[in-house]
Design a protein that fits this description.
alpha/beta, 2 domains, seven-stranded mixed β-sheet, two-stranded antiparallel ribbon, about 35% helix, binds zinc ion
Length: about 270
């Protein structure tokens, strides 16, 4: 019995010490990690300056790091932010600019550009919207705008061909339309032919649209033929691989979608 108690007491001392060591080791590693985070935050938001370990994750989307926890920007906002800061020639004072579904992240940049700025949407819910405009029937004359920015709109529109025709009609010859949509195989991973846009009128409920198109309020799932659709209405697509050309380091740091296209269209 005496031996047993002695043994137990030794075991207890042994475990107590190793537990203490584990806690110490854990604290030391945590301190290292904090130091590492400060020295080299792996992620950065070019819009608001957020620096941290990661962006907020979204389900249903191929790319996992989506939203900036600080300014709520998504990948496409961060990419466009970089794009507009590089392509300052597009935000030329006095030029006419049509912006669909204006995003708060760009509000200051666009409003301070000295352009004739038209932030529009199909609804007036967003307080940044100044005019109610249906992309299928844009209330402006032909060749009016020097710049059009239309990001993630066409997948919500009943007649997207009509929308693209309208964008073409109101763009000035020599002007630029920046058009973005989510594309299967890039933004979503759905088990249908990725080269063709997938649309079926029978998917007419939020549940079916979520299941087949990836989001409850999308009316179709674009494939890589989206570029051909733009060319079909008359646009010249002069570039679409801006993000890929930023290089791996920036794509990783700003959590961008490598293969996402910014379709830079002109006429
Ligand atoms: Zn941010």
């Amino acid at each position: 019995m005496k031996d047993f108690i002695l043994n137990m007491s030794n075991s207890y001392k042994y475990y107590k010490n190793s537990y203490k060591q584990l806690i110490e080791e854990n604290n030391r590693l945590n301190q290292e990690l904090e130091k590492y985070k400060k020295i080299y935050p792996p992620k950065e938001c070019p819009i608001c300056g957020y620096k941290g370990i990661e962006f907020k994750h979204y389900v249903n989307i191929i790319h996992r790091e989506v939203e900036c926890p600080q300014c709520k920007s998504h990948e496409r906002h961060r990419a466009l932010w970089l794009f507009f800061h590089e392509r300052t020639d597009l935000l030329k004072k006095g030029n006419t600019f049509l912006h669909f579904a204006p995003e708060i992240q760009f509000n200051e940049l666009f409003r301070n550009s000295g352009m004739e700025y038209h932030p529009v949407d199909i609804s007036m819910q967003n307080s940044l919207v100044e005019e109610k405009v249906d992309i299928q029937d844009i209330p402006y004359e032909d060749n009016y705008f020097d710049l059009i920015y239309c990001s993630n709109i066409l997948e919500h529109v009943e007649d997207d061909k009509k929308g693209m025709n309208e964008l073409y009609r109101v763009l000035k010859p020599g002007g630029t339309a920046l058009i973005l949509v989510p594309i299967n195989g890039i933004s979503y991973e759905m088990p249908v032919d990725k080269t063709k846009t997938f649309e079926d009128k029978k998917y007419n409920t939020p549940e079916l649209r979520e299941k087949y198109y990836g989001q409850f309020d999308h009316l179709r799932l674009y494939g890589t033929d989206f570029k051909d659709k733009l060319i079909d209405v008359g646009f010249k697509v002069i570039a679409d691989d801006y993000i890929k050309n930023l290089g791996y380091e920036k794509i990783d740091k700003y959590a961008l979608i490598k293969d996402e296209n910014i379709f830079e269209c002109t006429k």
